């Protein structure tokens, strides 16, 4: 059935009739017995570069009169997260901060806590009765200066100057704009396979078990077919792939070998060759 403008008008009239229970509106008939409480947000999300941050969840009430302390219950709390058992309102304030602390946090996992009010705390029908707080810690990236980058499969046996950044306090690195210079210098080998949209960075790290890296879109479409992107993946993603060659050739000289794959078509297994991608850190 086609919805016409007349049907919309009739629906609007019906809704207006149902919600006009009094001249003051339906919710004006609700009279609370005393102060009522709510979390300001149901799912606040925080991102910080600090490993021991304190984040604030706001709690609100329906009055500004008098000081008050309200019980808070926390469940599903990640290890290292500390949540106060109560929040205190100052006289004249209808908003109070609940400070949540995180100790010994590391980048990567999301830290969470689910907050609710104590059983004797009054809440309005429209209150945010629970609050799922999420804290993410990001790395603090520091530029090390210019190093060198080579992708022997995509760019040939050439090294290009690139900026290298390091996550402060970690053996984790980003190669900034790794393909921009190499593809600009390409004299026709890739021809119209190039999209011009190359990765902003390649990220790799050492967690003690060798080098690992995030997959990246190389900015090349196979046989110039739109959407058939060549993507570099760790060899462990594929049968016959390998991670044995993702190692340091020497201190400051990282080597890792991707499996270049086109979704739904196949790929080029370079993961069993040494030194396909190389990054030389600034000295």
Structural notes for this entry:
There is one protein chain. The protein has 283 residues and is mainly beta. The chain is built from 2 helices and 21 strands. Helix content is 7%, strand content 41%. The strands form 4 sheets. The chain has an 8-stranded antiparallel beta sheet, with no helix packed on it. A 5-stranded mixed beta sheet has the order 2-9-8-4-6, with no helix packed on it. The chain has a 4-stranded antiparallel beta sheet with strand order 1-3-7-5, with no helix packed on it. Strand 10 (141-151) and strand 11 form a beta hairpin.
Key features?
mainly beta; 21 strands; disordered N terminus; 2 domains; 2 helices; about 280 residues; eight-stranded antiparallel β-sheet; elongated; Immunoglobulin-like
Number of helices: 2
Helix content: under 10%
Number of domains: 2
In spatial order, strands of the major sheet run: 14-13-12-11-10-21-18-17
Number of E strands? 21
Biggest sheet character:
8 strands, antiparallel
Specify the structural class: mainly beta
Cα separation of the termini: 71 Å
Question: Rg from C-alpha positions?
Answer: 28 Å
SSE ordering: HEEEEEEEEEEEEHEEEEEEEEE
Work out the strand percent: 35-45%
Overall shape: elongated
Averaged pLDDT: 87
Taking pLDDT < 50 over at least 5 consecutive residues as the criterion, the unreliable ranges are: 1-27
């Amino acid at each position: 059935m086609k919805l016409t403008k007349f049907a919309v008008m009739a629906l609007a009239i019906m809704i207006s009739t149902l919600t006009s229970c009094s001249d003051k509106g339906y919710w004006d008939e609700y009279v609370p017995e005393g102060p009522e409480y709510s979390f300001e947000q149901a799912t606040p999300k925080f991102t910080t570069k600090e490993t021991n941050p304190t984040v604030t969840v706001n709690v609100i009430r329906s009055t500004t009169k008098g000081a008050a302390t309200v019980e808070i219950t926390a469940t599903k709390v990640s290890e290292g997260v500390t949540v106060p058992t109560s929040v205190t309102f100052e006289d004249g304030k209808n908003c109070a901060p609940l400070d949540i602390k995180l100790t010994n946090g590391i980048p990567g996992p999301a830290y969470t806590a689910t907050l609710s009010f104590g059983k004797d705390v009054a809440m309005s029908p429209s209150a945010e009765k629970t609050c799922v707080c999420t804290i993410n810690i990001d790395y603090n990236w520091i530029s090390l200066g210019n190093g060198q980058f080579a992708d022997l499969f995509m760019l040939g046996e050439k090294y290009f100057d690139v900026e290298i950044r390091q996550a402060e306090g970690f053996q984790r690195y980003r190669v900034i704009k790794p393909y921009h210079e190499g593809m600009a210098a390409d004299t026709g080998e890739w021809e119209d396979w190039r999209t011009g949209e190359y990765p902003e960075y390649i990220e790799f790290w050492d967690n003690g078990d060798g080098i690992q890296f995030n997959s990246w879109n190389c900015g090349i479409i196979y046989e110039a077919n739109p959407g058939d992107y060549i993507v570099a993946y760790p060899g462990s993603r594929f049968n016959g792939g390998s991670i044995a060659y993702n190692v340091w050739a020497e201190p400051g000289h990282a080597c890792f070998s991707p499996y270049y794959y086109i979704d739904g078509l196949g790929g080029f297994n370079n993961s069993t060759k040494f030194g396909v991608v190389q990054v030389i850190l600034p000295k």
